[in-house]
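[job 4471] stage=fold_predict status=RUNNING
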Amino acid sequence: MARTEQSVETGTVVRYDDLRGFIEAADALGELRRADGADQQLEIGAISALSRESKLIPTVLCDHIVGLEPGFRLLMNPLHSLNRVALAVGLPVGLTRAEYTKLGPPKWSGMKPLRSRIVSDGPIFENVQEGSDVDLTRFPRPFWHEDDGGPYVGTAVAVATKDPNSDWVNVGTYRVMYQDPTHVSVMMDVSHQGRLHQNTYFRQGRPCPVAISLGHDPLLFIMASHGFPEGVCEYDCVSGLRGEPMDLVVDPHTNLPIPARSELVLVGEIRPDDIRPEGPFGEWTGYYGGGIKDIPTVTVQAVYYRDNPIMLGNMPGRPPHQPSANAFLGILRSEGALDRLKRMVPGVKDVYSYSSTGGLLTVIAIEQQYPGHARQAGLALANGGGHRPRYAIVVDADVNIRDMAELMWAVCTRSDPASDIQVLRRMESTHLDPTVPPDGEPLMSRAIIDATRPFEWIDKFPKAVSVSPELREKVRSKWAHVIE
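[job 4471] inference complete, writing structure tokens
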């Protein structure tokens, strides 16, 4: 894949077949950088972190990694630009955030799962390790952060498990820690669907079959990171968004479907009788999340990989200066929350989750219609499922909720701490939450902050000082040489 100059016309929808095609397209957009000869011991992680502090946030392809054979590669930060998110989901490249905010939500909300296609063979079977030939030391296993508990092979993975009592295959993204040449650990929270599958197998006295894709189409990473309802297969969501079936092959060891064009896949069993320490790991909160926990370990029965395989890496960064992929995926998904809230509460105008907080602070703007309306909206926002947000803020529709300075102005001038902050206790959290005690249950409280003008006397609330839109436009056109 030779480096090219930017050669993709603005407004073009670029189609690609797999991770290699995605890399070629990112290169044509001028957003690919190469880091040959990087060391797995912290250097790769530091490159990933520091590149996120740049204006572009390129995707970085590492080859000739210290200690590995040339051609055993790693691609970092695949979705850290609007262009690359657009590329992955099939939107035109080169548009503005405002344009994507209009185009993204309808495409996302209009996605209908489409059954994937089982094929007999694929590039993933170009190379096979089985049984005593399994050797994970041949593949990248970066030590991402200085105080991680060990190397992590999985940061942008697609982990497939199957409900033992039905045909439902779930594909999730969980961190995967390297244990030794034939074992890894998959850390899944108690509410994760993969964990529920695992627990069902364990109750039946059986190990849990698992397939871990370590390099794949970034669209699969997007789908595996999203929380779909029970019974929905993320492979079928990839097919639905693309409008054509995704090709899968069946692994003979686990009978699980795996992407035919993945770069690197581990298959095996999560065994309840093999418990090993996992963690800590630098997580999306900006802290080393979850501490060290003893969890069941995966015995790797086989490794499949393409010639010159490419592992996908998406190290969690420290907010706000090392944004996560959610900072860009928000053009698709935050408005999905808007649709949900509009169905639940009248008068909802906008919703926005601040990626700089890891999604722990989310704001909703409403046009108040009755007493208690703001509190109703806050409760709907706080009870959206999962462990986010921690802070749900409700403001009037005249506030630009995407401007933190304006949001804080509204919070500080339209809310009273004693009467306008409601705390919900014993809510779902995660062991990755730094406020959860090391040996405690993963529970948290949530705060709803009502920063709206009191409905009962809204007409008497002091008028906000502003320049009218008409006067603003008139003065801006006449005095542009002074004020701009």
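[job 4471] summary: Residues 1-5 have pLDDT under 50 and may be disordered.
[job 4471] exit 0
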